[in-house]
Amino acid sequence: MARTHAVGLGRPGPIRVALVYDFDGTLAPRNLPEHSFLPSLGVTDVEGFWEECRREAKRHDSDQVLTYMRMLLSAAERAGVPVTRELLRQHGARTPLFAGVSEWFDDIGAYGQSVGIEVEHFVVSSGLLEMIDGLAIRPRFRKVFASSYSYDDAGRAVWPASAINYTTKTQYLFRINKGIDNVWDNSTINLWMPKQERRVPFERMVFLGDGDTDIPSMKLVREKGGQAVAVFDPVKFAERLSQGHLERLIAEDRIDHMASADYSPGSLLTVIVKGVLGRMARHAAG
């Protein structure tokens, strides 16, 4: 049973820690649409698709996340495929996860209980919410903040409802910090809240990410006393581009720890996260 501490007005509350994950490249290899959705639309040159998205964003001086979401719909329209929530969930369910992800939540939860803390899991991702919703692990997250579509009366995706890019990711860290489990509320997020009344203090937050889009979130969490962990795809580690990215994260003091995206019991990543949780529990207990 988790120990308690004072939270606002003397009320007891759990010693709560938030593990916050990027998704694409962090919990699953590559980008979500690459595994089955894009191939189902006849897109065989996946890297060419992303390159075209980058060119379009530059040509229109537009946000890259909004651009890729629009171009996914355009590709589906050309293929004559209506994009619905259920279709995206079905493709999301086919996404392979990194080793050990399915068992990770029980393992980390049990460790948290053993040191007297309650561990909660969140996703903050530029990936597609509807695809993440299709995964068997979806119920393990308290909240998933991710890019999503709005739908017409026939249930077809017509426009981005939420587009989370590298800087807007930090907004959702504050939502987790204050206990705001929605995207639409732009009033409460800006209200002043005493530190002791915030649901998850930043110093008890761990951010796990893999790419450049995670750097602002890693920096924010670290500056406010939390921990940032960079994970990398073990299949791609030998590539110079992957190594250079990791070298830069270390050189620029963006991360606290680095490990292969292996979530299996006894892996380096598991040892690191359990060690961080143990230290947070010790500091919280005073």
Description:
The chain is of the alpha/beta class and 286 residues long. The protein has 2 domains: 4-31 and 98-285, HAD superfamily/HAD-like (Rossmann fold); 34-93, no CATH class. Helix content is 40%, strand content 19%. It has 11 helices and 9 strands. It has helices at residues 32-35, 37-40, 46-60, 64-78, 85-93, 101-114, 129-133, 169-178, 215-223, 240-251, 268-285; strands spanning 4-6, 12-14, 16-21, 118-128, 143-151, 157-162, 205-209, 227-232, 257-260. It has a 7-stranded mixed sheet with strand order 6-5-4-3-7-8-9, sandwiched between helices. The chain has a two-stranded antiparallel ribbon with strand order 1-2. β5 and β6 (157-162) form a beta hairpin. α3 (46-60) packs across α4 (64-78) and α6 (101-114) packs parallel to α11 (268-285). The longest helix has 18 residues, at 268-285. It is globular. The two termini are 18 Å apart. Residues 1-12 have low confidence and may be disordered.
Q: What's the short story on this structure?
A:
By secondary structure, the chain is of the alpha/beta class. Helix content is 40%, strand content 19%. It is built from eleven helices and nine strands.
Q: Tell me the number of strands.
A: 9
Tally of helical segments? 11
> In the CATH hierarchy, what is the class of the largest domain?
Alpha Beta
The largest β sheet comes out as: 7 strands, mixed
Order of strands in the sheet with most strands = 6-5-4-3-7-8-9
- Class from secondary-structure proportions: alpha/beta
User: So, CATH architecture of the largest domain?
Assistant: 3-Layer(aba) Sandwich
CATH topology of the largest domain: Rossmann fold
C-alpha end-to-end distance: 18 Å
- Average pLDDT confidence is 92
Q: What is the global morphology?
A: globular
Total domains = 2
CATH superfamily of the largest domain: HAD superfamily/HAD-like
Percent range of helical residues: 40-55%
What is the H/E string?
A: EEEHHHHHHEHEEHEHEHEH
Return residue spans where pLDDT drops below 50 for at least 5 consecutive residues: 1-12
- Measured by DSSP, the beta-strand proportion falls in 15-25%
Q: Give the radius of gyration.
A: 19 Å
